[in-house]
């Protein structure tokens, strides 16, 4: 078993396909990453971190500059609702977990993500597109909106994304809540000390 490469000092790479596999889109393949987030899926801050897995969908050129964009999302506190990020021909596609409304917590969420995409890479401008991912392996309700993440038929693209999610259960890891090291003191306790 080979060790996945280190793309970032902020995320762990759990799985990596270094080159295209199969015949979907223009050489589609993927990697799975793990981050630590301090927001729940409602966008509310938590007292402790939680593990959050997301996938990057690569096209044939495996443009690792997309990692810099994702790091910027993380540093700006915007990564928590994201389950897939794809880069294809100068376009970034960000798929959010279904029923998550990042605007509820931050009204300019989409605008800031678009601005980060435009400035993520020196001497290159990427635009950002947004869609939704619904965990439904059979896609029986057809609610996943994959936008332009892969250049192929919607049915094949959604099946591919669903298969990745079946293997990795992307998004928030409910069993991974980290307990606080020290209890949070309320103001009365602080005044006594």
- As a whole number of angstroms, the C-alpha radius of gyration is 18 Å
* Average of pLDDT: 88
Give the helices and strands as they follow along the chain. EEEHEEHHEHEH
State the helicity in percent bands. Answer: 10-25%
What portion of the residues fall into strands of 2 or more residues? Answer: 25-35%
- Shape summary: globular
Structure description:
The protein is of the alpha/beta class. The protein has one domain (12-192). Helix content is 24%, strand content 27%. The chain is built from 5 helices and 7 strands. The protein has helices spanning 66-75, 102-105, 109-119, 154-168, 187-192, and strands at 12-16, 29-39, 45-58, 82-88, 91-97, 127-133, 171-172. Strands 1, 2, 3, 4, 5, 6 and 7 form a 7-stranded mixed sheet that branches. A hairpin with a 5-residue loop joins strand 2 (29-39) and strand 3 (45-58). The radius of gyration is 18 Å and the shape is globular. The N and C termini lie far apart (53 Å). The mean pLDDT is 88.
């Amino acid at each position: 078993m080979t060790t996945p490469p280190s793309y970032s000092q902020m995320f762990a790479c759990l799985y990596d396909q270094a080159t295209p596999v199969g015949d979907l889109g223009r050489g589609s393949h993927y990697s799975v990453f793990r981050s630590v987030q301090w927001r729940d899926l409602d966008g509310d801050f938590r007292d402790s971190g939680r593990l959050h897995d997301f996938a990057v969908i690569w096209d044939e050129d495996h443009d690792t500059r997309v990692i810099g964009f994702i790091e910027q999302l993380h540093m700006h506190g915007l990564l928590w609702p994201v389950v897939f990020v794809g880069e294809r021909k100068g376009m970034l596609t960000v798929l959010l977990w279904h029923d998550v409304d990042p605007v509820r917590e931050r009204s300019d969420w989409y605008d800031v993500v678009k601005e980060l995409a435009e400035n993520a890479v020196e001497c290159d401008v990427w635009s950002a597109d947004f869609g939704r991912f619904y965990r439904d392996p059979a896609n029986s309700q057809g609610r996943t909106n994959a936008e332009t993440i892969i250049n192929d038929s919607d049915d094949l693209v959604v099946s591919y994304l669903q298969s990745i999610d079946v293997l990795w259960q992307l998004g928030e890891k409910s069993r991974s809540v980290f307990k606080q090291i020290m209890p949070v003191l309320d103001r009365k306790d602080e005044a006594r000390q």
